Amino acid sequence: MADITYNQQQPESIVSLKRNPSRPREIFNKVMTVLSGACIGITLIPLFAVLIYVFIKGSSRLNLDLFTKLPPAAGQTSGGIGNAILGTIMVVAIASLIAVPFGVLAAVYLSEFSDEETARPIRFATNVLSGVPSIIAGVFAYSLLVLSMGKFSAFAGGVALSVLMLPTIIRTTDEALQIVPRDIRWASVGVGASNYQTVLQIVLPAALPGIITGITLAIARAAGETAPLLFTVVYSNNWPRGPFAPTVPSLAYLVYEFARSFDIVLQEFAWAGSLVLVLLVLITSILSRWATSQKQF
């Protein structure tokens, strides 16, 4: 009976461990929690402010004609930006076809097959490349392709954008591969799989969500770049004619050209182009998240 009574009583050591709201540590925790929440809210304010403002300014031209017609000529009030949407998709597709394979393969080599002495300078060079201004990529593509080919082209624009996409893809893919536990690799090799089979069939599928996220971020950056296109393509209000045609419309270039105009109609289409560009990036992000959530690793 004495034992039961003793067990039902709370020892003084347990009572002393109960949280006291008036203790300085608890007060500090609450203050820092509130401060962190306030910082998050302040960080989100510019994001939502930009999105809401772009939607308000660009929604007035959001209709079917916006996606199917050419920009209005002087004196017209109706038209669209279908050519710029198609040109943006074409240039970004060319950049993705160049940057995604090379970026993923480079990250696989760094994470799976290289030693630390080789990987360290390559990772440093990748970090340096990620900080290079976008206009430098445009000058590089201009010197390498435009001057040698003797004309502007969507291909040259795609090469310039691929230079900007590469460091993002390499860094995110490298980090995604490093997150995959080493035990999985050892288990695969232990049952007789080669290093290449382990990477292709085990490691890459496990890291696929992170890889797709990095590719999405790179595509979003490329779609919104204007400076590289100033040196590689010539804007036109006509439909794009091919990857090697000198005149290639794009949304970023259209926004740049129309926003500088004193014509109110063209300024409205510039805001509409900004809204479409934001929606394209948003849709790409949603589709990538949906695609990676369909398969459990």
- If you consult CATH, what is the topology? MetI-like fold
CATH class: Mainly Alpha
**Helix/sheet category:** mainly alpha
**Rg calculated over all Cα atoms:** 27 Å
3D architecture notes:
This protein is an all-alpha fold and 297 residues long. The protein has a single domain (65-74, 81-293), classed as MetI-like fold (Orthogonal Bundle). Helix content is 75%, strand content 0%. It is built from 13 helices and no strands. It has helices at 2-8, 12-17, 24-58, 64-68, 82-113, 116-130, 134-149, 154-179, 182-190, 195-223, 227-230, 251-259, 264-293. Helix 5 crosses helix 12, helix 9 packs antiparallel against helix 10 (195-223) and helix 10 (195-223) packs antiparallel against helix 13 (264-293). The radius of gyration is 27 Å and the shape is globular. The model is unreliable at 1-6 and 13-17 (pLDDT under 50).
Structural key phrases:
297 residues, mainly alpha, MetI-like fold, 75% helix, globular, disordered N terminus
Outline the fold blueprint.
Layout: H1 2-8, H2 12-17, H3 24-58, H4 64-68, H5 82-113, H6 116-130, H7 134-149, H8 154-179, H9 182-190, H10 195-223, H11 227-230, H12 251-259, H13 264-293
In short:
Helix content is 75%, strand content 0%. With 297 residues, it is mainly alpha-helical. It has one domain (65-74, 81-293): Orthogonal Bundle (MetI-like fold).
